[in-house]
């Protein structure tokens, strides 16, 4: 594994003129427009990078983009890998590990999620303060990769409190209505039954989605501080539940995109 990570990292360095990104960004479903705010220096197709999984979901385009965002050097994953696509957890988090080897100091993650808190509306932003992992596997199972991190990583602060606070300050300054809450990660790909939504609410979640937590676990393992934000694309509260179609999710994500882009860009601008 470590050798594959190293080969991918060396390849990327050779193709990007040794470009040094300081921050990593993962763009979720329907949230690719942040890329328009980047002055792009290099762009690599996942398919060209050794050992990189290739994206199969149509709403994800599969590029690693290097450039400047908010005056900082970033590497952006346009399109991520989900466990439900059939990838192993090692594959799902492969790019996150590569970003760390490339030298990023913080990770910024976005996703589309269903809202479980009855106060939420579609296209709201929820800054993730904690998570519940209901994925059937996780990327740390198996022999520990000591070069990356410890066998038993601490999970008392998977989302940097400092970054959460900075994000809330930015939201305040820009009059963005931002929520904070707990994200639960489920395997999917089917959406939840009404009974499952009630269960997820009961166990303490405010939003539900099919990604992010494996990546966050891999990042925490490597001691990489994380900021993550969900765009609420549908409401999973009894009485408000509608049949969900991907088009509606993409539409709600598109509506929230300017706010999410502003939040992440301003937050990255503030990092030293
Ligand atoms: N459930 C799970 N994942 C999701 C949802 C949902 O309601 N909306 C967007 N991603």
Question: What is the topological layout?
Answer:
Blueprint: H1 2-15, E1 23-27, E2 39-45, E3 63-69, E4 72-78, H2 89-102, E5 106-115, E6 125-133, H3 161-173, E7 178-185, H4 194-202, E8 207-209, H5 213-221, E9 226-235, H6 246-269
Parallel strand pairs: 1-4, 1-5, 5-9, 6-7, 7-8
Antiparallel strand pairs: 2-3, 3-4, 5-8, 6-9
Bound molecules: hypoxanthine.
The site of hypoxanthine has 13 residues, from strand 5, strand 8 and strand 9.
Pfam families: PNP_UDP_1
Function: The purine nucleoside phosphorylases catalyze the phosphorolytic breakdown of the N-glycosidic bond in the beta-(deoxy)ribonucleoside molecules, with the formation of the corresponding free purine bases and pentose-1-phosphate.
Protein name: Purine nucleoside phosphorylase
What can you see in these coordinates?
This protein has 272 residues and is of the alpha/beta class. It has a single domain, classed as Rossmann fold, CATH 3.40.50.1580. It is built from 6 helices and 9 strands. Strands 5-8-7-6-9 form a 5-stranded mixed β-barrel. Strand 6, helix 3 and strand 7 form a beta-alpha-beta unit. Helix 1 crosses helix 2 and helix 3 packs across helix 6. The radius of gyration is 17 Å and the shape is globular. The two termini are 32 Å apart. The model has no long low-confidence stretch (mean pLDDT 93).
């Amino acid at each position: 594994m470590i050798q594959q990570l190293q080969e991918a990292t060396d390849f990327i360095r050779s193709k990007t003129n040794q470009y040094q990104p300081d921050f990593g960004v993962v763009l979720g479903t329907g949230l690719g427009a942040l890329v328009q705010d980047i002055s792009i220096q290099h762009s690599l197709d996942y398919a060209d990078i050794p050992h990189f999984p290739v994206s199969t979901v149509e709403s994800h385009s599969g590029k690693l983009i290097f450039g400047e965002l908010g005056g900082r050097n970033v590497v952006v994953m346009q399109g991520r890998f989900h466990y439900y696509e059939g990838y192993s957890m090692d594959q799902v988090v492969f790019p996150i590990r590569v970003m760390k080897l490339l030298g990023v100091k913080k990770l910024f993650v976005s996703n589309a999620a269903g809202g479980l808190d009855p106060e939420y509306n579609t296209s709201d932003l929820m800054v993730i303060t904690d998570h519940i992992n209901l994925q059937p596997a996780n990327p740390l199972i198996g022999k520990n990769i000591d070069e990356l991190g410890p066998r038993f990583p601490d999970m008392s602060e998977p989302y940097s409190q400092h970054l959460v606070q900075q994000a809330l300050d930015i939201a305040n300054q820009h009059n963005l209505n931002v929520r904070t809450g707990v994200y639960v990660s489920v395997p999917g790909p089917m959406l939840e039954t009404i009974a499952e939504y009630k269960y997820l609410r009961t166990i303490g979640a405010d939003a539900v989605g099919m990604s992010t937590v494996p990546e966050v676990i891999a990042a925490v393992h490597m001691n990489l501080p994380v900021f993550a934000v969900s765009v609420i694309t549908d409401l999973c509260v009894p009485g408000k539940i509608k049949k969900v179609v991907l088009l509606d999710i993409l539409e709600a994500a598109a509506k929230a995109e300017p706010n999410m882009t502003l939040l992440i860009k301003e937050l990255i601008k503030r990092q030293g």
